[in-house]
Amino acid sequence: MRGNQAVSDAPAARYGEGMRSGVIVAAVVLVALTGCSGSGSALLGGGTSSPAPSTSVTAAFSFPTPAPPATPAPTAAPSNSTDCASGEVVINSASTVFAVGDCASVIVEGSGLNVTVGQVDRLEIRGENNGVNGGSIGAIVIQGQNNKVGAGPIGDVTVGGDGNDVASSGAIGAVAITGNSNRVASTGGTGTVVDNGSDNQVS
User: Fold this and answer.
1) Are the beta carbons of 119 and 136 closer than 8 angstroms?
2) Where are the domains of the chain?
């Protein structure tokens, strides 16, 4: 009986050792799998941790509003003046504005001029497209075209050109016209009128 029991105990002992070895191997495998699972999650981007969001910085550009262009100061028209020391002024200048005081005789030979006179004994206009303003004038003689004259009382008006305009804020003593399409008007009345042109108006 003793011999049989010794034989039967040996396989049991070997079975117990095998079970312990199997448990150890299973534990080692489980640990290995757990480690692989953790490393695999880190490699594939799994797990509960989220990658930090990427941020993009957009520079904000502020373009300054251009200032409006400065308005240039008006350029004064060139002017010339005289006191008529010699008693007669002849205007044939590059200046567009001309001023004359009281004078015995003023002759405008230029064109496109703006002339101001005082009291004048005789005003003669030979150019074109001029404007003359003055006080009382003894006599006005116009030989050019498209001129305009404004004055106070006028002694007499003689017009030989075309398209001229004479206006008096007083009376006009006499009017003689040989040109065409001229206009002579006064607020104080007009004396004798001789019109040898056409399409002229005298009032």
Assistant:
1) yes
2) 1-41, 79-202
Angle at Cα 35 formed by Cα 49 and Cα 17, nearest 5°?
150
Beta bridge partners of 124: 107, 141
- The β-bridge partners of 115 are 98, 132
User: Residue 176: beta bridge partners?
Assistant: 158, 194
Kindly calculate the radius of gyration of the chain based on its CA atoms and give it in whole angstroms.
Answer: 59
pLDDT in tens, 158-197: 999 999 999 999 999 999 999 999 999 999 999 999 999 9
pTM above 0.85, yes or no: no
Do residues 114 and 97 make contact, with C-beta atoms less than 8 angstroms apart?
yes
> Helix or strand or coil: residue 25?
helix
Q: What is the pLDDT of residues 14-31, one digit of tens each?
A: 544 554 554 454 444 444
